[in-house]
Write a structure and sequence with these properties.
Strand order of the largest sheet: 3-4-5
Oligomer: single chain
Number of helices: 13
Order of helices and strands: HHHHHEEHHEEEHHHHHH
CATH class of the largest domain: Mainly Alpha
Distance between the termini: 68 Å
Mean pLDDT: 86
Low-confidence stretches: none
Amino acid sequence: MKWQNALIDYQHYLKIERGLSQNSIENYSYDIKKLTNYLNDNSISKNPITIDNDTIKEFIYFISKSINPRSQARLISGLRNFFDYLIFENYRTTNPLDLIESPKIGRKLPDTLSVEDIDLLINTIDLSYQYQGINLGERNRAIIETLYSCGLRVSELIELKISDLFFDEGFIKVTGKGDKQRFVPIGVNTQKFINIWRNIRNQIQVQPDSKDVLFLNYKGKKLTRAMVFTIIKKLVEKSGLKKNVSPHTFRHSFATHLLENGADLRAIQMMLGHESITTTEIYMHVDRSHLSDVLNKFHPRK
């Protein structure tokens, strides 16, 4: 079908022209799949090339019943971009979402953990835990320490390679969104925990496509995003911590604690790999008392 060819072209555009990660491309594609599923389920004889404004309105109304306003806004934005692409490539002449407004949402502040929370989670890890003769407790500690001390995204963590470790220089090389690379400082303690895991890793029969991957499962394969989420979920439950914690929570906590301790926002931006300083500025909310302390300490007319 013509529109399916358009979807394939759009995915190539996202990868080559916009430099998006495979995960981001899959998210955009999933939005389009939601729309086509809706059309098929309701026996609507239209596709993304022929769909009109009224049908899009009905779809948005339908989808709003099952997703929150933030997810709804993201879906509308993704579909709007897709239809803009179809116009640019002459698949259609109008964007059916031009007159549709996204729901108004407040800016979501990131969840963070305190230093005490971090210590609790790390101290809860059973360092003697083994599976199939492989000590995965030490691996899990290295994972948590790396997420927190380097501020990595979960996708960056599972793609981290042994050849990306420059411990003599005190840095690791991280491949972020759009395959953009950056160097992030890494502390001595985190290096120590990673080296402990590397010694254990040497005991695993590593799969050919994971020879250079740092964090593996007991089968010698690269960890999945879902597995990292599961490790953290079980750890939080075991610790008794009553907070909603995900891999990204450690990244937020990394940035928050740096800012609270006086780090420069531009430096935090570079370590997080944010393309725009505006993205990093969300952390300015974190501790109003800290901002007051800065004012009292440095303003000439305090």
